[in-house]
């Protein structure tokens, strides 16, 4: 894919306006996650190879149309609108959006109540919980938080090798696992995965305190509770004779929130 002339920048601005509602170079910069200066430079010297690839991926316009002005603006078959033809009509825009966002094909749905969502036999709901260790019965006590359950697809659990009924959503508290888990991030644990696998992240209960730690197994049977934020929270070593104070609540199999992307 070659770098185009300054005409590619004009076509890029047009596509961003039509397909994403962008209103000028600064909006285009935000859409493509580049600096405004980069877009200004494209207007003078043509869109770079990286810019063309970003426009193709994030805006959805055809690379051929961007570089030459020929063919279709989008590869889904939408009618090409030339830079000189003015803004598209309402009918043209609606038709284009239907082609780009076919109904039921992974579109984002905003909802406030469960009834707002279309019926889906593959959807399951997972409650959000707090938990504590019962001194009387010696088992984990789960308490549903006063917040809405969240929907997940059954295929999500199949891919992870877990069952919905075995999973719990928990809110992270504290900064010991930053940047993997930030305070108030959401994590999902599988309560059947309690056999420690080296270097995995677990929700644990240790000496009357719920924790989330990366767990390492040591020769001789001891465990190391490691915090990603290790400069602030040093490792805790649990010797074999103190393992009876440790309860593995479940393995962290999913997380969402403000932290950096990662997994275990």
Helices and strands in order, then pairings?
Layout: H1 6-20, H2 25-32, H3 36-45, H4 49-59, H5 63-68, H6 90-100, E1 123-126, E2 128-133, E3 140-144, E4 150-153, H7 154-160, E5 167-171, E6 186-190, E7 201-206, E8 209-217, E9 223-226, E10 236-238, E11 246-256
Parallel strand pairs: 2-5
Antiparallel strand pairs: 1-4, 2-3, 5-6, 6-11, 7-8, 7-11, 8-9, 9-10
Helix pairs in contact: 1-2, 1-3, 2-3
Strand order of the largest sheet: 3-2-5-6-11-7-8-9-10
Give the overall form. Answer: elongated
Main pleated-sheet profile: 9 strands, mixed
Gyration radius, in Å = 25 Å
Structural class: alpha+beta
SSE string: HHHHHHEEEEHEEEEEEE
How far apart are the first and last residues' alpha carbons, in Å? 36 Å
- The helicity comes to 25-40%
Count of beta strands:
11
- Give start-end ranges of low-pLDDT stretches: 76-88, 133-137
Question: Top keywords for this entry?
Answer:
23% strand, alpha+beta, two-stranded antiparallel sheet, Umud Fragment, subunit A, 2 domains, 264 residues, 9-stranded mixed sheet, 434 Repressor (Amino-terminal Domain)
């Amino acid at each position: 894919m070659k770098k185009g002339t300054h005409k590619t920048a004009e076509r890029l601005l047009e596509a961003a306006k039509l397909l994403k509602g962008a209103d000028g170079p600064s909006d285009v910069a935000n859409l493509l996650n580049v600096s405004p200066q980069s877009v200004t430079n494209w207007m003078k010297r043509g869109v770079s190879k990286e810019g063309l690839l970003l426009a193709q991926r994030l805006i959805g316009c055809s690379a051929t149309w961007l570089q030459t002005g020929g063919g279709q603006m989008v590869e889904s078959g939408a009618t090409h609108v030339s830079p000189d033809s003015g803004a598209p009509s309402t009918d043209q825009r609606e038709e284009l959006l239907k082609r780009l966002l076919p109904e039921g094909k992974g579109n984002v749905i905003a909802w406030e109540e469960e009834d707002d969502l279309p019926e889906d036999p593959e959807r399951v709901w997972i409650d959000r919980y707090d938990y504590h260790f019962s001194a009387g019965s010696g088992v984990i006590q789960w308490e549903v938080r006063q917040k809405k359950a969240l929907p997940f697809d059954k295929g999500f659990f199949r891919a992870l090798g877990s069952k919905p009924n075995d999973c719990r959503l928990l809110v992270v508290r504290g900064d010991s696992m930053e940047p993997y888990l930030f305070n108030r991030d959401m994590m999902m644990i599988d309560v059947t995965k309690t056999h420690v696998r080296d270097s995995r992240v677990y929700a644990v209960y240790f000496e009357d305190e719920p924790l989330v730690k990366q767990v390492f197994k040591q020769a001789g049977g001891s465990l190391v509770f490691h915090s990603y934020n290790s400069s602030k929270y040093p490792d805790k070593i649990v010797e074999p004779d103190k393992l009876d104070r440790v309860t593995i609540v479940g393995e962290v199999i999913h997380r969402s929130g403000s932290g950096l992307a990662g997994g275990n």
